[in-house]
Amino acid sequence: xxxxxxxxxxxxxxxxxxxxxxxxxxxxxxxxxxxxxxxxxxxxxxxxxxxxxxxxxxxxxxxxxxxxxxxxxxxxxxxxxxxxxxxxxxxxxxxxxxxxxxxxxxxxxxxxxxxxxxxxxxxxxxxxxxxxxxxxxxxxxxxxxxxxxxxxxxxxxxxxxxxxxxxxxxxxxxxxxxxxxxxxxxxxxxxxxxxxxxxxxxxxxxxxxx
Length: 210
Prior knowledge:
Blueprint: E1 8-18, E2 21-28, E3 40-43, E4 46-53, E5 57-62, H1 64-69, E6 80-85, E7 104-114, E8 117-123, E9 137-140, E10 143-151, E11 154-159, H2 161-166, E12 177-182, H3 184-193, H4 201-206
Antiparallel strand pairs: 1-2, 1-6, 2-5, 3-4, 3-6, 4-5, 7-8, 7-12, 8-11, 9-10, 9-12, 10-11
């Protein structure tokens, strides 16, 4: 589990294909102190397992499923990614709870300078837009962001200069693809209020939730 607070960049150094799967090596200046083989790390929002590491970086195995459902299937040697190590019991929860399970690949449709900030508009796969709400949380390439507004299959966020400098969104442009993970809370609520889930709108109203 992660928070969506990016700790550093990684640079893809090599990709070795093994059938439909792949082995990827990332170099990074992010501290890997206390990181060991078997630990989870978020690579632009995708939760991967470290299979080996040294002072300069780490290696991960990437399944065919992950390659097909995330931007890891299209990145090239030299591309930068956002990195975050998994939460520990003593970690500060500065963003929101992120699983590292990418829902879909979205597309940047707009990048609009606004004062010193940047406004991004993202298109998402229609079946996931119901989990994206105004002032709610969403994860884009592993970054915890607040939704400014949303419409059918599109949502908007604003990033400050610090986020632009410290994450890959700073050099992304319209047409680029990004990994999207919607807030897990919405998915659980949907399942609970579904027929047979044990909770309905009357229950929520009675308990003061709506």
